Amino acid sequence: MGAEHYVILRDDDTNAFTPPECLEQLYRPFLDRKLPVNLAVIPCVRRSAKTPSAEPEGFLFGANGTSSEVEPLARNKDLVDYLRREPIYKIAQHGCHHDTFEFDLQDKSEILRRLDSGANYLRAAGFHMPSTFVAPHDKISRSSYNEIQRRFRVVSTGWFELRRLPHAWWPMYAWRKIRKRSHWRVGNTLLLSHPGCLLSRHRPYAQILDSVRRAVNSAKLTVLVTHWWEYFPTQKTDERLIGILHETAEFLANDPTMRVISFDELPGHWSAVCP
Question: For residues 67 and 75, what is the distance between their CA atoms, to the nearest angstrom?
């Protein structure tokens, strides 16, 4: 008998400055329960990466004492060794350097350069070419969509805007809107949206777990998005938020209607998720 609800957990912004102990503290309950954790990994993080509001990115707190402008993932040997020891972690490509709106551009040659560079940095760290792409800040131009769709089986983003999509995709997009689908496909590529970052310190803590339950119980497939660095504000541990994440693991593992899968597994379940 198939699951009633499928869940994909996506954690963004693992990079060369990420302490492996942070991931271990967050995700050991998931790993022990064999629940896949999809890490959207920045292949070669820019030390000066900024948010859209021009603030330093929160995932850079491990960059203290470094001077290089960009830092390839392979330079953090402890992190790479940790990730490769734990097969429950699945790697997605999160841009290249995580520059602001990195794939919101039309120059095809530059798009290809960024995609190739990101893939090469991940290979240099010992990882296979990921099947899933996550764009920094969820901004993808029409030209970028075309090139990303040619390379990846899955694109995970927050939302889709008609004006950014290739014109050839418009009929499929319209059909998706008519059928009120959160997820759709173009050719062999699956296009997934998510209900916002529910597991976040910017949400009322008392409501997070209920929000997660409502989201996953109301959909056949839900992508739950979180950010590892939010659990360590100002480099301190937020025990309460970590506790909520661990309660989420317990809920997902113990509910017989739930099946937690990786992005890599999704093509094999697509007919059940989007009949």
Answer: 13
Domains of the chain: 5-273 (3.20.20.370)
pLDDT given at position 1: 47
pLDDT band, residue 182 (cuts 50/70/90): very high
